[in-house]
Amino acid sequence: MADNIVWHDHKITRAERSVNKNQKPCLLWFTGLSGSGKSTIANALDVALHNRGYHTFLLDGDNVRHGLCKDLGFSDEDRVENIRRIGEVSKLFTDAGLIVLSAFISPFTSDRLLVRNLMPSGEFIEVFMDTPLDTCEQRDPKGLYEKARAGEIRNFTGIDSPYEAPERPEVRLDTSVMSVDQCVDKLIGYLLERNLITQV
For 145, how many CA atoms within 13 A lie in the half-sphere containing its CB? Predict the structure, then answer.
């Protein structure tokens, strides 16, 4: 960290910002293999919350690598830094009172814990897309599994790089047996149950 940097406190608190929005800030962290449905479900939930009048923002792994993290590769070290940056950005958005949806493979338990520890208690919601590898590989929407199997892509999660599955996620979804609507309904139900949102 650079020297001579002092934290500047804001006059408007995150609680005051969230009251203005009639919602409680939180971070829904979608994690899972490529093709497990992270982006699909996060986008569907984003639309559902927006249509109900909530203020949200969606951070997607591929999109972020076009800008904020375009200098990073896919080594273990770069993956750690990618998630660290996303965690800090997500925290800033929740400080603004938003409901944030982040869709990233985020394969390492330690990285997800780092982000969880940035957030106030109860505001980090780990959504594990527990879709089997076989299903993800059959879908292969970007053709990445085929390239990884052929050795054209290195350090590909689930093939030659590990994925550490969450042991106690707040929400577990399997898109091999659940529809998009069923996944969204389960997530809306969780947010209502935790009083993070108040209306269906």
Answer: 14
Q: What is the DSSP string of 54-94?
A: --EEEEEHHHHTTTTTTT--SSHHHHHHHHHHHHHHHHHHH
Residues 156-175 pLDDT 10s? 888 888 899 999 999 999 99
Confidence (pLDDT) at 200: 64
Crossing angle of helices 38-51 and 180-193, in 10° steps, is: 60
Digit-coded pLDDT (tens) for 28-63: 999 999 999 999 999 999 999 999 999 999 997 666
The one catalytic residue in 106, 121, 161, 176 is: 106
- Average pLDDT of the segment spanning 63-72: 66
CB-based contact 157:105 (threshold 8 Å): yes
Whether residue 46 contacts residue 101, with contact meaning beta carbons closer than 8 Å, is answered with: yes
Asked if 180 and 44 count as a contact pair (C-beta separation under 8 A), the reply is yes
> Does the annotation mark 39 as catalytic?
no
**Which CATH number is correct for 21-193, 3.90.1150.10, 1.10.630.10, 3.40.50.300, 3.10.20.280?**
3.40.50.300
Return the residue matching tokens 């269906």. Answer: 200
